[in-house]
Design goal:
The complex is a heterodimer of chains A (about 110) and B (about 110).
Chain A (H helix, E strand, L loop, with lengths): L3 E4 L2 E5 L4 E7 L6 E7 L5 E8 L4 E4 L2 E6 L4 E6 L8 E8 L9 E6 L1
Parallel strand pairs in A: 2-10
Antiparallel strand pairs in A: 1-3, 3-8, 4-5, 4-9, 6-7, 7-8, 9-10
Chain B lengths: L3 E4 L2 E4 L5 E7 L5 E8 L3 E10 L2 E4 L7 E2 L9 E3 L8 E8 L9 E2 L3 E5 L1
Parallel strand pairs in B: 2-11
Antiparallel strand pairs in B: 1-3, 3-8, 4-5, 4-9, 5-6, 7-8, 9-10, 9-11
């Protein structure tokens, strides 16, 4: 069974600082990995999908890296803004999505 | 607009009263699934469907039923809800389960069973 760990569980930074969110998973036989954003009590918004054959995927200020062999992915958010405050979830797909508990980010103005 | 729509968004019900949460997607996706999200436990898969008339159990199927009679719809049925089914529920869809498959989630249904 895929186990997903996200570190840190919570993060508080001043506006403008870069964010680094870590995700590790136990089974490296994945098709891809998705990063989601969840606002309190709301649904999941897909941020990035990184394929198993890729090392990186970028969208605007977001960059996700994937090291499948070591079971790790990192989400970088450049120049954070208060609007980036949310919970970020990673979900490796090894036939189905498995989720970590998430990293709750607070960006202080 | 491509989307997954769940209804209702909020529901308070009493123990034992049957309920259905609907889920519909407009992206012609084959794969659909239901998750529940609980504090400290993350998202856990309840049931999934690979295509019409094909459904299977996820990690926490007890107390739930599903059906997939049409490609776009995947309702979640609680025949006799209990307080331990109080949770935030999400429906998701994707083209499939393998490579290049991006999952899309509905806005969630917050269910309270008293």
């Amino acid at each position: 069974k895929q186990e997903v760990t996200q570190i840190p569980a919570a993060l508080s930074v001043p506006e403008g600082e870069n964010l680094v969110l870590n995700c590790s998973f136990t089974d490296s036989a994945i098709y891809n990995l998705q990063w989601f954003r969840q606002d309190p009590g709301k649904g999941l918004t897909s941020l990035l999908l990184i394929q198993s054959s890729q090392r990186e995927q970028t969208s605007g200020r977001l960059n996700a890296s994937l090291d499948k062999s070591s079971g790790r992915s990192t989400l970088y958010i450049a120049a954070s803004q208060p609007g980036d405050s949310a919970t970020y979830l990673c979900a490796p797909n090894d036939y189905k999505l498995s989720f970590g508990a998430g990293t709750t980010v607070t960006v202080r103005a | 607009e491509a989307q997954v729509t769940q209804n209702p968004r909020y529901l308070i019900t009493v123990t034992g009263k049957k309920l259905t949460v609907t889920c519909s997607q407009n992206m012609n996706h084959e794969y659909m699934s239901w998750y529940r999200q609980d504090p400290g436990l993350g998202l856990r898969q309840i049931y999934y469907s690979m295509n019409v008339e094909v459904t299977d159990k996820g990690d926490v199927p007890e107390g739930y039923k599903v059906s997939r009679k049409e490609k776009r719809n995947f309702p979640l049925i609680l025949e006799s809800p209990s307080p331990n089914q109080t949770s935030l529920y999400f429906c998701a869809s994707s083209p499939g389960t393998g490579l290049y498959t991006e999952a899309f989630f509905g806005q969630g249904t917050r269910l309270t069973v008293v």
